[in-house]
Amino acid sequence: MSHPVLRVTFILLFAIVMAGCATGLPRNPLADWQPSPNHEPRRARAIVLHHTAMDSAEGALHTLQTENSGGPVSAHYLIGDDGRVYQLVSEQQRAWHAGGSRWAGISDLNSWSIGIELDNDGAEPFSEAQIRSLLVLLEDITGRLGIQRHMVLAHGDVAPTKKDDPSALFPWQRLADAGFGLWQREHLSAPPAGFDPWLAMRLLGYDLRDRSAALAAFHRRYRGRDERTWLPGDDAILYDLQQQMLQMQ
Ligand SMILES: [Zn+2]
């Protein structure tokens, strides 16, 4: 141990071990630690898409590494309008992108989703390069993490009273053509007598505590507009989406 190289090596190893103790997984002192090998990192169950409402990916990167007017924010990924993909937070960690949110009766989407920000000012179309990169990323994430492909949601879906991103210009049909998210099938049939469109909304996952906000989110996604009251044709779309959901059960 007197050799200088050995001594330095020992000190480094000691430092690494101590750092591991300091930052390692906490073990509850109230219990005996009897580790089991049968575990894995907790996995996300959904993917939440956003637009940044900013002018550049550089500006968005800065905000997602610091804070916005409401406090610190982040997302797992940011996709520039040139198609470049940035990762800011490990998929195993909880990023701060969804805020107060609820889907299918479960709140706090941050705890069970991957957040993807799209560099878009909220008024412009989404670029081809960006959508191509998004589709590649969705294929990758859903495959590796075992997230069901229909669980690709809009921020506006899960926080309908507070958020409206991504905008009505987002190409949900294109995503559905690639197998992500839900979309109405080409030939819709009239719903049977007694069909309840609100029940269908609830089955899809919408939080109905503010029904007009939920309707705006539904229309933004499936009709490309932000209407807050029922539109002709909504019943047939919801009946079709309900049938698709029931067939997945
Ligand atoms: Zn958002």
Automatic annotation (TrEMBL):
CDD domains referenced in this protein's UniProt entry, alphabetically: PGRP (cd06583)
Keyword Cell wall biogenesis/degradation part of the UniProt annotation: yes
Gene Ontology molecular function terms on file: N-acetylmuramoyl-L-alanine amidase activity
Gene Ontology annotations for the cellular component aspect, listed alphabetically: outer membrane
Domain of life of the organism encoding this protein: Bacteria
Chemical reaction(s) catalysed: Hydrolyzes the link between N-acetylmuramoyl residues and L-amino acid residues in certain cell-wall glycopeptides
Root EC class: hydrolase
An individual GO BP term: peptidoglycan turnover
InterPro entries tied to this protein: Amidase/PGRP_sf, Amidase_domain, NAMLAA_amidase_2
Positions of the N-acetylmuramoyl-L-alanine amidase domain: 32-167
EC number from the UniProt entry: 3.5.1.28
Listed name of the protein: N-acetylmuramoyl-L-alanine amidase
Keywords: Cell wall biogenesis/degradation, Hydrolase
Keyword Manganese part of the UniProt annotation: no
